[in-house]
Design the sequence.
């Protein structure tokens, strides 16, 4: 009965030849498993090193955005922070208050702009509107608020000192 069953298994498994298979005992199975784990561990080291290097490099620098009297109330200025490929905007909302955000819309990455007359940050691609106070979504298809940029106001100018992702209601001044 067992031989018939074994013959049946050989017949349905066309490419498996049991005569040429290695006998796998527990010791061999454990050794093969440990060897496979070691291969996976060693092959992941470059990816872990690259991820660690990115986290170390992501510490943003402090850059000067504007002079102390460069912007009037309601004016804006674009700049790049923390990398040259990260466009951002600085808006002067009152005499002593500034707000700054990345200008890639959180919907489809279209560039947003400051509409001085409406007092909102606008995305022209799909009519998205963001609050200049905290970068939150006011209307349109975007679901997430704009990443805000931490500002430091000194006597000699306004500096970008960090990025805050996903905040609601956080002031940047």
Sequence:
């Amino acid at each position: 009965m067992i031989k018939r069953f074994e013959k049946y298994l050989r017949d349905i498994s066309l490419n498996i030849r049991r005569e040429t298979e290695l006998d796998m005992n527990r010791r061999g199975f454990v050794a093969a498993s440990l060897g496979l784990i070691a291969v996976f561990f060693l092959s992941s080291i470059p990816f872990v090193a690259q991820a660690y290097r990115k986290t170390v490099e992501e510490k943003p620098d402090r850059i000067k955005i504007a002079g102390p009297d460069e912007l009037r109330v309601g004016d804006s200025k674009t700049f790049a922070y923390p990398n040259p490929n990260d466009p951002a905007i600085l808006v002067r909302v009152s005499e002593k208050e500034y707000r700054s955000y990345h200008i890639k819309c959180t919907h489809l990455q279209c560039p947003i702009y400051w509409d001085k007359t409406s007092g909102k940050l606008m995305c022209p691609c799909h009519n998205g509107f963001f609050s200049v106070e905290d970068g939150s979504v006011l209307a349109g298809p975007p679901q997430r608020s704009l990443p805000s940029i931490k500002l430091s106001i000194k006597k000699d100018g306004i500096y970008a000192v960090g990025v805050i992702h996903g905040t609601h209601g956080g002031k940047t001044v």
In short: The CA atoms of residues 56 and 133 lie 30 Å apart. The chain is about 25% helix and 30% strand. The longest strand covers residues 157-164. The longest helix spans residues 26-57.
